[in-house]
């Protein structure tokens, strides 16, 4: 069978109960309710891993087209079901994942990590900050946070830990591996919050915010990056210190680590032509995404973020840094485009059919009865949204299921639209800190065995509290200074 029986039966049961058993609430379009039944079933299937998420997405598209919940016309229904494949945000992430293949293929990502360790690697905490800096530099062009934290940074962490005989198999993980693994992981959610292109679900947040505000709030790449810059940097500075305090490494002085990194760099040889090209494309992407040319020469020089991603990929293909065969092997990119399109399509039509407005009204009424002003009411909404991630193994599923309703309810309670959008955007990445199944990076790092489950969850909860305080308090003041609210 191409599916897991138990999670498939559970998701199907949930969908059928909503469709046939629960009465359609007053004021809700029956088609909206039936689409909700399919949507909740799809989310349950994703959480239960009934099938690969791309396969679930294909079935979701099929169900929307066959049932005609969005359109009575068969041709109109399939057009609606496939409509999100034309969404530029989906292609921005898909193309960016393809571009990030160049970091791995050329070795530029690993070289950056070893360069920082060669400079700051004389103490264990210095190695930690080297990992953080590597994460930060790679984040804008690595929308797969799993590829960044698990595929590029984590192998370096393991190599250095092993060189100091810090090995879970020997019971010596406390020498430094535990500390470095936690820093490796906890940097991932923070950098993911700092750029639209730092993790795949961020464009979904942008899309949902725009739809909820009728495009009055449209978060550009540069607006997001500038907003998250100060709170993100402060969180990245504080996090290694907190991990050092919670789980101090037994080996604190690491004079050999710098030499180890230099040896690795020597093995890699001089910087290759392809690495130089990759670095140049990296610079062009940042220049265009940040809108620098438009600032200097005027709006005629503005380039759409998705167009920018295509320019970057085109340059890598023309120069031969990447081949079309490399692109075809990027299963995660094509997979992301497929499931992203399905989930965005379902969320879009839930909104168009009025379901999100109805549910946000239910939330608004429930919190409104508490008699709170907009600030504590919206903090309550955001915290409920963030800590609900204990129930999710996918940030995309979580954001798709809950973001729009919670954000719309916050607006109805009087929250400044831009402030609450940025708070919820930050929470959408911060929630990755919590568990060993919170995002794709977590099972990679946790699976290396350097921490126990209890240590991981404790570190995750502490960092979620620290991060949300930084982003809400310092971020809120920073956004006020920027005139965002």
UniProtKB/TrEMBL annotation:
The chain crosses the membrane at residues 6-24, 36-69, 81-100, 112-132, 224-247, 276-301, 307-324, 336-360, 366-388, 459-479. GO terms for cellular component: membrane. It is found in: Membrane. Keywords: Membrane, Transmembrane, Transmembrane helix. It is a multi-pass membrane protein. It holds the Pfam family Na_sulph_symp. GO terms for molecular function: transmembrane transporter activity. Belongs to the SLC13A/DASS transporter (TC 2.A.47) family. DIT1 subfamily. This is DASS family divalent anion:Na+ symporter. It comes from Acinetobacter gyllenbergii CIP 110306 = MTCC 11365.
